[in-house]
Amino acid sequence: EPEVTQTPSHQVTQMGQEVILRCVPISNHLYFYWYRQILGQKVEFLVSFYNNEISEKSEIFDDQFSVERPDGSNFTLKIRSTKLEDSAMYFCASREQGVRRGYTFGSGTRLTVV
Amino acid sequence: GQSLEQPSEVTAVEGAIVQINCTYQTSGFYGLSWYQQHDGGAPTFLSYNALDGLEETGRFSSFLSRSDSYGYLLLQELQMKDSASYFCALNYGGSQGNLIFGKGTKLSVKP
Predict the structure, then answer these.
(1) What is the tens place of the pLDDT at every residue in A64-88?
(2) CA terminus-to-terminus distance, chain B
(3) In B, which residues are within 8 Å of A31 by CB distance?
(4) B103 touches chain A (CB under 8 A)
(5) What is the pLDDT of residues A38-54, one digit of tens each?
(6) B45/A100 CB distance under 8 A
(7) Which of B52, B57, B56, B84 is nearest to B70 (CA)?
(8) Degrees, nearest 5: CA angle B3-A79-A4
(9) CA proximity to A20, closest of A33, A32, A7
């Protein structure tokens, strides 16, 4: 079964530092997403990406965040100047053209800002 | 804005049937999805309702009523491995694929 791969699985960073979270979506998927989940809370939408550009972003996704698809396989989320409240599990997801088969989520990167 | 309400916890016994309800408020959406998440794991897609009615996938069924702003996930023949959190989510956005999740229902299956 194809998987969405995320690295690293855990990341600890100091407040104010920049982090890059990496994802390899499923190869024939067209839509890519980043979501986050603060411990014990619901999953929150950050950004969607299609055709090499951002298609939609939430109010959480401010200038501190950016996404890139630098080559044909990787999809990255960069968080500049991290804050304590950025500590969360960050999930990458991808899907096919249609929505009936849902998203495939990666296993997540647990980001801890200290 | 959009919001979804689900019970926070449900407990059932192995072999039983359980229904997890989801009510929502939205100005527009394409469909209602359900995801399962085990502790520390990634959300896993279970079901999607674009139209009113019942969708069946093995032991899991999902229902949507747009007129009642209501849906549910039905789990039959419960197994211990079904103990997890279950999230309903609204599909919205230009690509139909952006999701707004509910807070989740933690299902505990007892022997």
Answers:
(1) 999 999 887 899 999 999 999 999 9
(2) 41
(3) 95, 97
(4) yes
(5) 998 889 999 999 988 99
(6) no
(7) B52
(8) 70
(9) A7
Would you call A86 helix, strand, or coil by DSSP? helix
Half-sphere exposure of B47 toward its Cβ, with a 13 Å CA cutoff?
23
Eight-state DSSP code of residue B93 = S
Quick one: closest CA in B to A48, which residue?
B98
Tell me what pLDDT residue A96 has: 87
Question: Omega before A25 cis (within 30°)?
Answer: no
Is there a contact between B103 and A33 if contact means CB atoms under 8 Å apart? Answer: no
**Does any CB of chain A come closer than 8 Å to the CB of residue B73?**
no
Chain B residues inside the 8 Å CB shell of A42: 87, 101-104
Sign of the dihedral defined by the CA atoms of residues A94, A97, A99, A102, in that order: negative
